Amino acid sequence: MAGQKFQYDESGGTFYYFLLSFLALILVPTTLYYWPRKKKEDVNKLKEECQCPDCIKKKSILASAEPYRMLKSFLIKLCLVLGWALLVLLAYRVSQFDYEMASFDPFEILQLPPTASMEEIKKTYRELSRVLHPDKPTGDEKSFMMLRKAYQALTDETAKQNYEKYGNPDGPGAMSFGIALPSWIVEKENSVWVLGLYGLVFMVALPSVVGMWWYRSIRFSGDKVLLDTSQMYFYFIHKTPHMLLKRALMILAASLEFDKRHNSQIVERQSDNEEVPALIRQLPNLNEKCKEHPLCRMYSIKARAILHAHLSRIPLNSETLEKDRQYIVKKCPYLIQEMVSCVHQLVMLAYARRVPRLPSIETIENCMKLSPMIIQGLWEYKSPLLQLPHLTEDQHLYYINKKRHIKNLQQFAQLKPEESRQLLKSLSDFEYENVMKVLGKLPLIDFSIRCEVIDDENTNVVTAGAIVTVTVTLIRKDMKTLFGDAKVPEKQGIKDDDDATGGGDDEEASTAAAAVPIKKVSAWGKQRKGKGGKGGKKAGNNQKRKAPPAANVAQNKATVSLSNAESQDHNEDSETEADASDLEEKDCSGDESDNDKPQNNKSEIYDDDDDDEAWERLQAKLNKREKLEGKSRISHTVHCPYFPEEKQEYWWTYICDRKSRSLLTAPYHVTSLVDKEEIQLKFTAPRWPGLYTFTVCLRSDSYLGMDQQQELKLDVKKAPVPPTDHPQWDLSESEPENHEQHENSSDFTTDSSEDEGTD
Asked: Distances from the Cα of 119 to the Cαs of 124, 163, 166, in angstroms?
């Protein structure tokens, strides 16, 4: 604009305002968050805690895990105090800034009321001039200039008009700008240093930090597990579809998190050359001579030996192997969860025909068994009573089993107080009190299920191909509710197939028995969403993945094929798979089927590609929402003196088919069970009508002997025939004649058309 002048605020006063505001925004929430508060110690809570030697040792381990906690607290306090001191100093500095024309009032400067006459103004001006004139001993040049401007603004006509119009007797002033930077930054002699600093920060330091963070983060999955470790899990699970428990433990010990080349936190000592071989000699069935890579590598053998010693509760050198044990054991829960996820993903790939062999349900369950074993430091075949403090296998458990034949914690909790005290009479009153405190805080889960077809006209009727929703209700109580109550029925535990058949040590035979082609594993045909009812398209909030489809084979032929495959030698697996493939092609083409059902020439096709895309979009949206919101991981603290960290109670729940040894739903990880929680598990109903029996399982990842299962019986009805006069299913007359043959062999062929052809 013409006539205007622009000036730059070279004093840098604006910087102090910016720094004051920025510092206040940082200091206030930081002080509220970090300032230490004196926690009131709950006397009742301290009394409820276990005081056994192992728990006391664990507390000392947790305390020693933060050796600089006091120093860290002191430094935080010091930084907060210095920050507030700087804030007060800046506030004082800003209050001293005096911009002359910011609030120019001539009457205030002359110390006169606004109603003063001209004579009073002149008289006061003369008196103040004698005092403030620079030539006088009491003079002040700045104050005298302000006095003169005030006098002119009240006596001179031009100055008076300028004051009334612009607020300044000198007229309109130049516009002044300021930046929130200190003045030395814009000084010419410092320009080279300032540019160098900017280049160092924004062109060297910042890209380097971002690059280091990126290249480190891309090596890990969402659960902070190395991607190379996940890839190794996929390889071994695919190689061993029926994985025994000790095999799963070997693979867990071979995780690359325990290899120094992949993890810089791993410590390799010279003493390991003596201590590890000595430890191996104490451990039976370690299989240290295995030739598979990386199971034969030294880091894997060392981790395996430490895990075996942990499960056998063998004391280790506190300065060397004990530190390694604490680090390895702390990593195991995350690695086991990754193993469970890998098995489930391989099951999904197997159903999609992308991998040749389907992992059995025993594989994923054996992986789950590792978690409570590691948390409690106890082998799975040991008595669950050993999870209680002060109890030993040689003295107390032998006497308990001999007198009352007590096998689990629930039976022990149902004893009357005098009976339990009599069984543990070798313990002191203090030790017995610790045992009962820990037993009373153990979880007692009320496990119930409800089955329905959501959004269908009749939610209680399950039709072929419908999406079945099983609502699992978990109500957690303390075990102390059972004290002295012998009438409470015992919870139904999970009966593993290995236990029923006596297990087995021959892994190759087990692998050959489980390496069944995908086309044989199930008695029901391949499923399509939405075929059996209106509720087939809706996804549950808690279900992460869509239920997997099964192979398209008739029930009795699949059962016969599975039993034949289990009786074959491992070298004949390829031949069995070829026969099964031929059998599948015959069954799908309609030439030969189990029930000799000829296909109808006028079968109908339902194009549900749009519905499939909508389903996938909905699932992706739900998964994204769950990842963004996150799940609570606070439930109840686990009594685990052999685990060197605080652990919360988590659970797995899933649905499986014991007959075909297959998984129907993804294992849902329940991490927030405080009092009550409901989980929805979804799967596709069998394609063929009939009565089916599935199993809903609940497994603990923290305690042994807490697993439960319930049978789910489905009476699958025939799917209703869709209306033929709907324009969506009208076939065009211009379609080629040979399309009918494709319809007959399609997975969308309805059961009604087959029945009509049979009749």
From this structure: 9, 20, 26
